[in-house]
Write a structure and sequence with these properties.
Length: 344
């Protein structure tokens, strides 16, 4: 990160954290241990341990709310007015993670037991539902920061529309697990909802709260959408061809679990041999090696890299069209570069 991005992050991130703690009842006066309802939320957020005692654990990079505040400042607004919106998008993101962990049967997240493994699926679902509602309460705080009521209402509407896109994306992702013949276009539509919709909303809300005109707001939104798509496709590439020491996960996992990522879907449509392999029961080293060979033979890696570059270029073009200004503009370009220039 550049010096400007570091300096702005030093102001933005604590403000986001303080706002989320206020919304989610994790103030110094509150006790997670005496209120398990709040405590389960605090556990997921990294503010409490399994006994619901206060603790501080690394709980995500807060990239989404950081993008929102940078966009708001770069659009000429007062970033402090946009803090409630930044808190709202991070809380809704964490709501989706709580439910994703249940739906994916995931036992761990961020190196700790997931909420549902400790307190059961019904209570974890309820906790996620509470976070969904609290995210909306966070967004309503915009008016307390002097944001005009009509802008706050518009922000709330866009927030709810994004929530529908997010859950539709999750529906499609889960349905793909049991479907044969998923098309590349269907996959791109799915990640547009599950991944890109929230990132697009972050940059859109930042500009909206800043008072930018409709054209600039749309440029900021398109920047976020392209950024989200590029980032997800890069994840797909790294999940197969990435360096395990860098990505922190086994590159074989996506193949062994038959995860339908962009390069895999591209290759399945072009290789009968790969289809036969995926219909079998293989999961050993030879299976993985053969799958990767077929992916390379079909040009799946090249295709995915080209798609990632296409959306990356689109993100930069849209950000430039939004005409960001001030120190936040430079920081926003640098953060974008950091997110998009991951090695394959």
């Amino acid at each position: 990160m550049t010096q400007k991005l570091n300096a702005l992050s030093a102001d933005f991130l604590p403000a986001i954290e303080d706002e989320m703690r206020s919304v989610l009842g994790a103030t110094e006066q509150a006790s997670s241990a005496t209120d398990p309802f709040q405590g389960m939320i605090h556990y997921h957020m990294g503010w409490a341990d399994e006994q619901l005692n206060p603790v501080t654990i690394k709980s995500g990079k807060r990239i989404r709310p950081l993008l929102l505040l940078l966009a708001s400042s770069a659009a000429g607004g007062d970033w402090q007015q946009a803090v409630p919106a930044a808190a709202a998008v991070e809380i809704i993101h964490n709501f989706s993670l709580v439910h994703d962990d249940i739906q994916d049967n995931s036992p761990t997240r961020r190196g700790r037991a997931t909420l549902w493994t400790l307190w059961g699926q019904p209570q974890a679902i309820n906790t996620g539902d509470a976070m969904f509602a609290m995210a909306h309460l966070a967004l309503n705080r915009l008016v307390d920061r002097g944001v005009p009521a009509d802008i706050a209402v518009q922000a709330l509407r866009r927030f709810d529309e994004m929530c529908v896109d997010l859950t539709r994306g999750q529906y499609n992702d889960m349905s793909f697990e049991t479907r044969d013949g998923v098309a590349v276009d269907e996959y791109l539509a799915m990640i547009s909802g599950k991944t890109a919709a929230l990132i697009a909303l972050c940059t859109e809300l930042g500009a909206l709260v800043a008072g930018a005109d409709e054209t600039r707001v749309q440029h900021f939104a398109e920047f976020g959408r392209n950024l989200g798509l590029a980032f997800q496709i890069q994840d797909d590439i790294l999940g197969i061809w990435g360096d395990e020491s860098v990505t922190g996960k086994s590159v074989a996992t996506d193949i062994v679990t038959r995860k339908k990522t962009l390069p895999v879907l591209y290759a399945l449509a072009r290789s009968d041999d790969l289809q036969a392999l995926y219909e079998g029961n293989g999961e050993d080293g030879e299976f993985v090696r053969r799958v990767v060979t077929l992916l390379d033979e079909t040009g799946a890696r090249r295709y995915a890299v080209d798609e990632a570059k296409r959306y990356s270029d689109g993100a930069i073009d849209s950000l430039s069209a939004a005409q960001p200004s001030g120190p936040a503009a430079e920081a926003l370009f640098q953060l974008t570069d950091t997110l998009l220039r991951r090695d394959f």
